[in-house]
Design brief:
Elements (H helix, E strand, L loop, with lengths): L1 H16 L4 H8 L3 H9 L6 H11 L38 H11 L5 E5 L6 H12 L7 E5 L12 H11 L11 H12 L5 E7 L2 H4 L10 E6 L10 E4 L5 H12 L6 H9 L4 H13 L5 H9 L4 H4 L7 H10 L3 H10 L9 H8 L3 H13 L4 E4 L2 E3 L2 H11 L5 H26 L7 H4 L12 H24 L3 H18 L2 H18 L2 H18 L2 H18 L2 H18 L2 H18 L2 H17 L3 H17 L3 H17 L3 H17 L3 H17 L3 H14 L9 H6 L2 E4 L2 E4 L2
Parallel strand pairs: 1-4, 1-5, 2-3, 3-4
Antiparallel strand pairs: 6-7, 8-9
GO molecular function, one term: DNA binding
Protein name: Tetratricopeptide (TPR) repeat protein/transcriptional regulator with XRE-family HTH domain
Keywords: Coiled coil
Length: 745
């Protein structure tokens, strides 16, 4: 017991020096806390695998292995065989606890096969070797490790015949007894493993065809495979896919190698620049350690230089560029072309229709190509019908794949994507706000077949998924000089942004569109974009900015003789005048516009304008007239089956009743608005209605009820702008003190 005690005492000393509890060390090594306690006290013998794992965790290379007690001769099923050869454990390893658990569970089953897959540089071999060291002692006939060279610089994948030859030699088969035929070699290999307990580690596999002849028939043997491909055809295997490291684990890895504090903001920023890819993190940390004159700020500065980023992730022996080139090397021409064109997509993720548009192939063909890229870990799949490029893969594909493609192919791909997204957004806009004016170009755009949805709910769902991509596409359109598509995108996004109150992207997209229209010299586009930008600014509460946009739009419409545009801007000005407090001028302008809409039969615009008149008349205390205008607006919206407009009209009518002191009627209208807004997922109008109900409760002295309703309003929409929403201004009159509701004096 003496030698075990010496080992245990040293383990306890190293553990305490590292500031680790037994529970923490147990979690990191996957040995139980009770077993580790027995090892420390000398009650249980340590193993080489335990020593190697603890040394790696405690940064104590060689200090524990030399204290291992002499091991008694182990009884083996075959006395003539002692295969060995696992690579040394890395001194720096973090995280991957779930992966280790999955691998261990897979290899505890009879005949268990586990495939660890992931993109190049994600740490597959590190994890497999670590797990193999951990499990090796459980295999009485040892462990065989073979690099299959699936992605090795300067060398092709090892042929099954070559690998079987090596395996048979490792199993002590004389050279002159190894058959020439690959099938005969496989049969002899399986025969030699019969009755034995061996852990077989096949690293860096190119594909399932390379691995399949190497699988033993002996159930006591286990197989651990690593590959940059998912190897789905090994359907009897357990598949463990490795993702990037978490922020915390990436920082821990960098700090351990570079010998710096893992908690600093600069370290977090550096590992984020490395994409949290273990290989990139390791190289960056090694470069910092190799340059004593550098500090973290210098490394960060170098990694921030987009032009030579890949050059910085190269320490002379390891290169991220080389690793990714090996992954791309095995792609077919169609997959490689798709990867390059996908790097043009400016958004975070995309569907098959976007991939099809970029590459100019049918959606079904695009799906097959994307699946192959996903199988090679060059695409991720954040949702069942969405794909994404890792930032590092995107940058590599842009610099190394896309750069080699003719310029006309790149431009054509981006235009196809813009056209497909624009056509789909135009359809969604028509469904989202039926009756809204769309110019000729928008009415005749033809979206891809899989995206020809038919209802408002589908349109809203599509917009919610794609709006960020559409915003980024508008930026790309401007950058690439696609000015017409740039302002068209803004036009078809306006309705969605109005419904969802996403003011910042709404304003940003329309400012870009205004610049694009000016570049084209298209005065009608410039006038319309100015008018829509004014609506966005006014809706957010920037009334001065909105008035300026409306003035510019009005001048342009008058210059080109567009009466409809001029009238619409006059109506918009009326809303601004109301919110600025000039209610009489607001009623005049809105009434002028209403007369025009009634003459031309534009019922929807008439209903919208009546709401504005009702609000201005309410401010002038003309309650009967205001109620009549709001009720007519409600009737017109319902006649046209415009549910969102009907909800707004109900809120408007409720406000008229509230200001007139008819709180019971106000509450009834607000409740109807809240119910209908909820069914339409119109969160902003629902919040307005709930706020109004809370105001009614507060005025009636029902403080607890009021606070509960206001809380529900905040949950529906995170804050209404008091400058634009009268209900929000009323709510500000009340304060909650010590649980009691009181009115501000």
């Amino acid at each position: 017991m003496g030698e075990s005690s010496n080992f245990g005492a040293e383990l306890r000393r190293l553990r305490r020096r590292a500031g680790l509890s037994l529970s923490t060390l147990a979690a990191r090594t996957h040995y139980s806390k009770g077993f580790l306690s027995k090892v420390e006290t000398g009650a249980a013998p340590p193993s080489p695998a335990l020593a190697a794992l603890c040394e790696a965790e405690l940064g104590a290379t060689g200090l524990l292995v030399e204290l291992l007690p002499d091991e008694p001769a182990r009884r083996r099923t075959r006395p003539d065989t002692r295969p060995s050869g696992l690579p040394a454990l890395s001194a720096h390893f973090v995280g991957r606890l779930a992966g280790q658990r999955s691998i261990r569970a897979a290899l505890e089953a009879d005949g268990g096969v586990c495939v660890v897959s992931g993109m190049g540089g994600v740490g597959k071999t590190e994890l497999a070797v670590r797990c193999a060291h951990r499990l090796e002692s459980g295999f009485t006939d040892g462990c065989l490790f073979v690099d299959l060279r699936g992605h090795t610089p300067g060398r092709g994948p090892a042929e099954p015949a070559e690998v079987l030859d090596r395996l048979l030699r490792m199993l002590d088969v004389p050279v002159d007894e190894i058959p020439a035929d690959v099938d005969d070699r496989a049969a002899l290999y399986r025969s030699r493993l019969r009755g034995r307990s061996v852990l077989l580690v096949f690293d860096n596999a190119a594909g399932a065809a390379q691995v399949r002849p190497l699988l033993p028939a002996e159930p006591k043997c286990r197989v651990l495979v690593t590959s940059r491909n998912r190897l789905p055809s090994l359907d009897g295997a357990t598949h463990v896919s490795l993702d990037l490291l978490s922020d915390v684990d990436a920082a821990r890895l960098f700090a351990a190698i570079a010998d710096v504090d893992a908690e600093g903001a600069m370290v977090r920023s550096i590992v984020e620049r490395c994409g949290r890819l273990p290989l990139a993190v390791r190289i960056a940390a090694a470069r910092l350690r190799a340059h004593p004159a550098w500090d973290l700020a210098e490394l960060h500065r170098r990694l921030t230089d987009e032009a030579d980023w890949f050059g910085e992730i190269d320490d002379g022996e390891r290169s991220l560029t080389a690793a990714l080139e090996l992954s791309v090397r095995d792609l077919g021409a169609a997959e490689s072309r798709m990867l390059g064109l996908l790097s043009l997509h400016p958004g975070g993720d995309f569907d098959v229709c976007a991939a099809a548009a970029l590459t100019g192939v049918a959606p079904r063909a695009a799906d097959r190509l994307a699946e192959r890229l996903h199988g090679a870990f060059l695409l991720s799949q954040p949702a069942k019908d969405r794909f994404a490029l890792h930032d590092i893969v995107r940058a590599f594909a842009r610099d190394s794949v896309l750069a080699g493609m003719p310029e006309q192919q790149k431009v054509a791909g981006l235009r196809r994507l813009l056209d497909a997204m624009l056509a789909t957004a135009a359809l969604a806009d028509r469904l989202l706000i039926p009756g809204r004016y769309q110019p000729e170009w928008a009415r005749h755009l033809d979206p891809p077949e899989p995206l020809r949805f038919a209802g408002r709910a589908q349109a809203m769902a599509w917009f919610r998924v794609e709006w960020q991509n559409l915003v980024e596409l508008s930026r790309a359109a401007q950058q690439f000089g696609e000015y017409e598509r740039c302002w068209h995108l803004a036009f078809v996004l306006r309705g969605f942004f109005f419904e969802t109150k996403l003011w910042d992207p709404w304003i940003a997209v329309h400012r870009r569109a205004r610049e694009a229209a000016a570049e084209l010299g298209d005065r009608w586009a410039l006038a319309g974009t100015n008018s829509h930008l004014g609506v966005a600014l006014a809706d957010r509460g920037d009334l001065a900015g909105a008035a300026e946009c409306y003035r510019d739009a009005l001048d342009l419409y008058r210059e080109i003789g567009d009466e409809h545009g001029e009238i619409t801007v006059r109506a918009n000005c009326g809303w601004v005048e109301h919110f600025r407090g000039d209610h009489e001028t607001a009623v005049r302008n809105l009434s002028f516009a209403l007369g025009h809409y009634e003459r031309v039969g534009n019922v929807r615009n008439a209903a919208i304008t009546r709401r504005g008149i009702a609000l201005a008349q309410t401010a002038l205390r003309q309650y009967p007239e205001a109620a009549d205008a709001a009720e007519r607006a409600l009737a017109e919206a319902e006649e046209l089956a415009l549910e969102a407009d009907a909800v707004r009209a109900l809120n408007c009518l409720a406000w008229v009743h509230f200001e007139a002191g008819e709180h019971r009627r106000a509450a009834a209208a607000y409740q109807r608005a809240a119910d209908r807004a909820g069914s339409q997922a119109s969160h902003y109008e629902q919040a307005r209605a709930l706020t109004g109900l809370g105001n009614v409760a507060a005025c009636g002295g029902r403080g607890t009820e009021a606070v509960a309703l206001w809380r529900r309003a905040d949950e529906a929409h995170g804050g209404l702008e008091p400058a634009m929403v009268a209900e929000a201004r009323v709510r500000l009159r009340f304060r909650v003190t010590g649980g009691t509701l009181a009115q501000h004096v």
